[in-house]
Specification:
Number of domains: 1
Structural class: mainly beta
Helix content: under 10%
Number of strands: 9
Strand order of the largest sheet: 1-3-8-5-6
Order of helices and strands: EEEEEEEEE
CATH architecture: Sandwich
Largest sheet: 5 strands, mixed
Distance between the termini: 30 Å
CATH class: Mainly Beta
Shape: globular
CATH topology: Jelly Rolls
Radius of gyration: 12 Å
CATH superfamily: Jelly Rolls
Length: 90
Amino acid sequence: MNRNPMKISSALEIVTPESFKGPSIDIGSKKAARIEKAAGKSLRCVSGALWVTQAGDPVDHVLEAGQSFAIGANAKVVVSAFRDSRYALV
């Protein structure tokens, strides 16, 4: 069951720390990306607003610009955007 009430694209972009070409990545409104190989990193919302779901975590998280979320060990994370946004893995 999809707990996210937003209609999002069914195709997820896969993002790893190695895939970053610059300090942050753009994510369009109602788009989603799967974050992989990022244990120990933090997902930081640079601009906009993000919905973050981490496997095994019963709580989803909403990040506004300037807020961060610590990614757990071996965690599967999906990030989606409420509006055009930008995020970084730090």
